[in-house]
């Protein structure tokens, strides 16, 4: 759904649900995931419907993810670091 | 714990914040600028230093160069700067709670200047919670910050200058804009024309806007004017958008739909600091009540820039400097005469940049349906998935203000703390109850306005001075 205008010179590797992805220095976690083709970030608390970043500036809280063991962090406000562990908060519908 | 004290703490690193901090430091105030982002610029000039270094400004346009100057002047000033700071509290007594790379702390400032800028007006339409639906500004932020752009055809739907600007920016970056669905009601044009003579005085600003619209045409972006009643269709993600135009229902396939109905002040901190707010009918948004210096109903708290009402990035600069002058006066560093004298050229600059605003406010005033949707199944509160229908029922049961409706429906109770539903909830309740939006009011916003990890909070406990004011639920 997204692409990079150019590949970054230097990069870092972060892990999303255990899978390594390349990110650019200075990326927010949300931007790194979107650039890597990840467009489903979490499921909603009430209906377990899929959610993804909506505002990208810290207002909508749709990009919440577990980052380095801490749940519910705003992925659009956290800058990537090499070796960072990201887990998406996805719960499948039980109905 | 922290005994850190400053004369002035500026919150937010956009044009208002940078200009204010630079000026305050020049006037001899011990000034600190606190910002959420890793580098100065705010949303408008996001990542401006990097973009300038990389020679990538062409993509965004000439007017962004101003941001690079502002950032350079700010960096060269004596103002302290703490980027990557999450502000979770500002108090009327001057305390500020923040979390940075080195943990949580409380600091104290004799005066606080909120320069928290604007956010996109949340656009509650059917299907807007699905992946593949984003703000026009959200995708622009992604492009500025990371050079990441859509690689599937996008549909842009909405109203306001940013719609045209981002359509051209995306097209120039090689993206396919499959359709531009303009929701500006045709009926707005007659009213807007009355403001044209004054807007003509704005010359450059008016030409800039016309140039964007012209470029949309030149780039061949398919544009439909007078669209309404958008609906994002899809199983669990955006697949298509349908809309009304020319009395018929139309549909276009799209995996990525970008919505926009203008920007509104980001009032989360000013609300939580208990500054008095008013519903601005002209701009259809909540804003803190401020005087000509940006002073609020709270003695130590001022607001500058779009956070006090939308006037745009260029007006934010003089507004920031005016607020800094007033801070220096109130702290006894300059006389009233000196303040007024130095403010004169700033007010002249402000007037220049303000000339286009009445035209923009009239022309792009959101349609009633955008402010307060009528479709009962439309989700208003994204976090708790509260619909228009549920709000209607709450009003019927006596939930005639947002805080009561919150108790009845859980609207505004999720992680975003009402940022995304606040204005819509007030507007829907007003319509359903027959009251004005001002009478209906808005959510009481409680601290922390951003989540703080319990471990970070634990570091603060035991420090009497650092404890947040009693009774707050954290």
Walk me through the topology.
The complex is a heterodimer of chains A (95) and B (474).
Chain A: E1 2-4, E2 11-16, E3 19-24, H1 29-35, E4 42-43, E5 50-51, E6 64-67, E7 70-74, E8 85-87
Parallel strand pairs in A: 2-8
Antiparallel strand pairs in A: 2-3, 4-5, 6-7, 6-8
Chain B: E1 5-11, H1 15-26, E2 31-34, H2 48-53, H3 57-60, H4 65-76, E3 80-82, E4 86-90, E5 95-100, E6 103-114, E7 118-120, E8 133-135, H5 136-146, E9 148-150, E10 154-159, H6 161-172, E11 177-182, H7 188-193, H8 196-200, H9 204-218, E12 223-224, E13 228-233, E14 240-245, E15 248-253, E16 256-261, E17 263-265, H10 268-272, E18 277-280, E19 285-288, E20 301-303, H11 313-330, H12 336-354, H13 357-363, H14 368-371, E21 379-381, E22 386-387, H15 388-396, H16 402-409, H17 422-433, H18 437-440, H19 454-460
Parallel strand pairs in B: 1-2, 1-6, 2-3, 6-20, 8-16, 10-11, 10-16, 11-12
Antiparallel strand pairs in B: 4-5, 5-6, 7-17, 13-14, 14-15, 18-19, 21-22
Helix pairs in contact in B: 1-4, 1-11, 6-9, 11-12, 15-16, 15-17
Explained architecture:
The complex is a heterodimer of chains A (95) and B (474). With 95 residues, chain A is mainly beta. Chain A has one helix at 29-35; strands spanning 2-4, 11-16, 19-24, 42-43, 50-51, 64-67, 70-74, 85-87. Chain A has one helix and eight strands, in the order βββαβββββ. In chain A, the strands form two sheets. Chain A has a five-stranded mixed sheet, covered by helices on one side. Chain A has a two-stranded antiparallel ribbon with strand order 4-5. The model of chain A has no long low-confidence stretch (mean pLDDT 94). Chain B has 19 helices and 22 strands. In chain B, strands 1, 2, 3, 4, 5, 6 and 20 form a seven-stranded mixed sheet that branches. In chain B, strand 18 (277-280) and strand 19 (285-288) form a beta hairpin. The interface between A and B is large, with 41 and 51 residues.
């Amino acid at each position: 759904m997204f692409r990079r205008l150019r590949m970054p010179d230097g990069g870092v590797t972060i892990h999303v649900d255990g899978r390594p992805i390349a990110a650019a220095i200075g990326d927010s976690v949300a931007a790194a995931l979107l650039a890597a083709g990840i467009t489903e970030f979490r499921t909603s608390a009430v209906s377990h419907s899929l959610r993804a970043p909506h505002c990208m500036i810290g207002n909508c809280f749709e990009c919440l993810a577990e980052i380095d063991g801490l749940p519910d962090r705003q992925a659009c406000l956290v800058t990537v670091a090499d070796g960072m562990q990201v887990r998406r908060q996805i719960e499948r519908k039980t109905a | 714990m922290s005994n850190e004290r400053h004369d002035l703490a500026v919150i937010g690193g956009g044009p208002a914040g940078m200009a204010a901090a630079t000026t305050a430091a020049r006037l001899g105030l011990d000034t600190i600028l606190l910002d959420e982002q890793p580098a100065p610029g705010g949303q408008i000039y996001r990542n401006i230093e990097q973009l300038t270094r990389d020679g990538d400004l062409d993509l965004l346009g000439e007017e962004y160069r101003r941001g690079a100057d502002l950032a350079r002047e700010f960096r060269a000033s004596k103002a302290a700067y703490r980027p990557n700071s999450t502000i979770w509290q500002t108090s009327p007594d001057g305390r500020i709670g923040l979390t940075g790379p080195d943990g949580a702390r409380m600091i104290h400032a004799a005066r606080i200047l909120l320069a928290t800028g604007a956010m996109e007006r949340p656009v509650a339409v059917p299907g807007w919670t699905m992946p593949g639906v984003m703000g026009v500004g959200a995708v622009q932020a992604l492009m500025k910050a990371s050079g990441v752009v859509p690689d599937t055809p996008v549909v842009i739907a909405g109203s306001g200058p940013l719609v045209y600007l981002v359509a051209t920016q995306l097209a120039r970056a090689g993206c396919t804009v499959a359709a531009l669905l303009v929701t500006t009601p045709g009926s707005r044009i007659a009213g807007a024309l009355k403001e044209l003579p004054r807007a003509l005085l704005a010359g450059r600003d008016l030409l800039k806007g016309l140039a964007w619209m012209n470029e949309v045409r030149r780039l061949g972006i398919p544009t439909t004017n007078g669209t309404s009643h958008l609906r994002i269709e899809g199983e669990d993600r955006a697949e298509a958008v349908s809309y009304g135009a020319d009395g018929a229902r139309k549909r276009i396939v799209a995996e990525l739909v970008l919505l926009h109905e203008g920007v509104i002040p980001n009032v989360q901190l000013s609300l939580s600091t208990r500054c008095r707010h008013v519903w601005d009918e002209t701009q259809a948004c909540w804003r803190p009540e401020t005087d000509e210096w940006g002073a609020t109903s709270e003695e130590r708290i001022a607001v500058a820039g779009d956070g006090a009402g939308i006037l745009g990035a260029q007006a934010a600069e003089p507004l920031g400097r005016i607020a800094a002058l007033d801070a220096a006066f109130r702290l006894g560093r300059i006389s009233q005469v000196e303040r007024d004298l130095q403010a004169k050229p700033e007010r002249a600059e402000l007037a220049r940049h303000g000339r286009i605003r009445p035209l923009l406010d009239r022309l792009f005033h959101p349609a009633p349906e955008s402010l307060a949707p009528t479709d009962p199944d439309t989700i208003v509160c994204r976090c708790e998935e509260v619909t228009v229908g549920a709000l209607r029922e709450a009003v019927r049961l006596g939930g005639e203000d947002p805080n009561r409706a919150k108790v009845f429906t859980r609207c505004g109770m999720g992680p975003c703390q009402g940022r995304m539903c606040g204005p819509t909830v007030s507007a829907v309740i007003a319509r359903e109850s027959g009251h004005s939006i001002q009478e209906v009011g808005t959510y009481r916003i409680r601290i922390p306005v951003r989540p703080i990890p319990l471990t970070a909070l634990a570091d603060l406990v035991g420090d009497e001075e650092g404890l947040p004011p009693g009774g707050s639920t954290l």
